Amino acid sequence: MLTGKQKRFLRSKAHHLDPIFQVGKGGVNENMIKQISDALEARELFKISILQNCDEDKNVVAEQLAEGTGAEIVQIIGHTIVLYKESLEKKQIVLP
């Protein structure tokens, strides 16, 4: 689990990032979880936007993505989710 200080640090790092993935009408599926998992390994931290046509609640989508990928939810703000997972091979972010 991330501490408040670590979440604050990650939020500041994620601020300038643009969302890479979008969750739409289909919601979360296996293929999306696999792609996000691979992207987390490469980048560690990124944003996912939830489109207006997504039927599921943003908190449910965030939970599904975090569980499926083993990532931590850093922040849910508006229709954007920020996820973090420490990379095994390409560690770039050093948490405070």
Automatic annotation (TrEMBL):
SMART domains with a match to the protein in the record: CRS1_YhbY
Alphabetically ordered keywords of this record: RNA-binding
Presence of the UniProt keyword RNA-binding in the record: yes
UniProt KW RNA-binding keyword: yes
UniProt GO MF annotations: RNA binding
Domain CRM: 1-96
This protein's name: Ribosome assembly RNA-binding protein YhbY
Lineage, highest ranks first: Bacteria, Bacillati, Bacillota, Bacilli, Bacillales
Gene name as annotated: yhbY
